[in-house]
Amino acid sequence: MQIRGEFDVKMTPQPADEAAGPMGRFTLAKEFRGDLTGASRGQMLAFGSATEGSAGYVAMEQVTGTLGGKTGTFVLQHSSTMTRGTPRQSITVVPDSGTGELLGLSGSMTIDIVGGKHFYDFNFEMA
Q1: φ, ψ for residue 115 (rounded to 5)?
Q2: How far apart, in Å, are the Cα atoms of 95 and each of 1, 47, 67, 103, 105?
Q3: Which residues contact 2 (CB under 8 A, 6 or more apart)?
Q4: Each residue of 6-64: pLDDT tens digit?
Q5: Reduced 3-state DSSP string for the chain
Q6: Do residues 32 and 7 make contact, with C-beta atoms less than 8 angstroms apart?
Q7: What CATH number has the domain spanning 2-126?
């Protein structure tokens, strides 16, 4: 099944960590609307290159909410890059992370930012 919706995100910078080197650390808080409704909390590590438009990030977030009328939680794993403005995204449901009615959930997500608004496309299956 494929769905699309909108979300708001708040990224809060965390204190610098000498052990992390040039990486930025952030906490994430999202609110999802559409066929996926709910909230997520997570953490992100990011790096911005000296070359404009080149960067990368990794993140983990736990989503709590309702997906296609079913409630529960699941975890998304992010590993994405941008090469001189061209994005390459990998956002995947962690296997066996679904709980409640979302037990057995698998899938992947992409994110688009249009006019300052965040949108998700979520392709998923229930086992």
Answers
A1: 60, 35
A2: 17, 26, 17, 10, 8
A3: 121, 122, 123, 124
A4: 999 999 999 987 777 789 999 999 999 999 999 999 999 999 999 999 999 999 999 99
A5: CEEEEEEEEEEEECCCCHHHCCCEEEEEEEEEEECEEEEEEEEEEEEECCCCCCEEEEEEEEEEEEECCEEEEEEEEEEEEEECCEEECCEEECCCCCCHHHCCEEEEEEEEEECCEEEEEEEEEEC
A6: yes
A7: 2.40.350.10
